[in-house]
Amino acid sequence: MKFKRYLVYILLMFAVILMSSACHSKTDISKPDSTDSAEHAVPASFQGVVKAVDTDMREITFVNFNYGSDIVLRYNDACSVYNKSGSLTAPEMLEAGLVVQVQYNSEKMRANEVRVDKDCWEYDNIVKWSFDTDKNMFSISDKNYKYSDSILVLNDGKTQDIMCLNQVDKLKVFGIDNKICAVIVKEGHGYIKPSNYGDFVGGTVSVGYIVNQPVVENMLLVVREGIYEITMNNGNLSGKRTVQVSRDEETDLDMSGVVAAGASDEGKVDFDIWPPGTDVYVNGKLIDYEEPLTLKYGRHSVTAALTGYTTYKGTLTVSSPNPTVRIDLKQEVAEIEEDEEDEDDEKHTAKPSEDKAEVTDKPIEDKPSNSSSDNTSLATTSPDNKKATEDESEIHYDKKHTMSVNGPEGAEVYLNGVYKGLAPCSFPKQIGTQTISLSKEGCKTRSYTVVINDDNQNVTWTFPELDQ
User: 120-187 — its CATH code?
Assistant: First the structure.
């Protein structure tokens, strides 16, 4: 009996062990893997714009269209990145400004897939553009696009307000459908602050080949970054300097010691002739055009001839110190590109009877390093980027109302390069697209593009403090 009792106890204990083992086994099988559930339980997606890719931190910053704010996602080798054509690419190949569709793990803030939107378009090297902050409209050439308050504007990798763009900037834009989503500043603007130029006040200043504007006291020129030859003229006074303008930096233009008084009535003419070997005659005499030719101001006959080419005959009018004459015998149509007129209506012309000749103010090799075929004004002068040599009556004023700049307090205020006073200050309201520049000792100069409507109201701004 005793043996039977022990046997029953042993069987009962064995049964309990088996039941416990079965329970544990069932629990282990049904328990989900925590990693897998996290990957699939919290998926999310959005449409946005690439802002930056940090390959060291393995992070991508986007502007999320859903919220109009930044979102930073980590990525690893499992993240799939597709370009516009649908091919796999690397995360570092994602360019700032691209419109993308993003799928990510919202719990781990990790990107699973980034796909460039197939409808994303881009325009590069844009120089003819404008915007209207009241209508949230951005124009490229003659086509209008909408933009939202969350538009990404990057200048040297840093986010800025769209009003900080200047009409001299060269841009790259990204969009989708009829909407601009991102603006990247390819070539930004800087500032030229003339000093010691009192003898030239009332004359004209030219930047490179394109910009002429009146010289006034307390000027501040806004120009695209690059190297420029600056020329100031006032009657018989002339002065030149070469300056390098850096993005967002103010460059001093010291005009002291460069004044040439009593300008002569002669010009040194450079000849740019094609093809090589062409014989050139000025006033009937064969010349060596390898060196500049000194000619009196006035009209001179020019003949260029070479066997096998059409002979060129024309008249050159010299009226400036350093004109350049270009003659291309291969061209059959005569066409003269005249310099812009200055305030005294001085210009030089060469009206050939046939073939092609061009007369410019300066030798070819003196062109600024950033000159390009866009032929866009490189300095802010007046509304719509028109030349500042236009008669002031063409500028539309609303003299019954004012434009006021209240801050930053103590900053020098310039409207289209003309000094208006220290903030807070007010001045007559000028209609159209304007550039307001702010300068303060010890701070970085900054400019804003504003659109002034003819709405019979005063306009007031308070801009952010300038960075030191």
Answer: 2.40.50
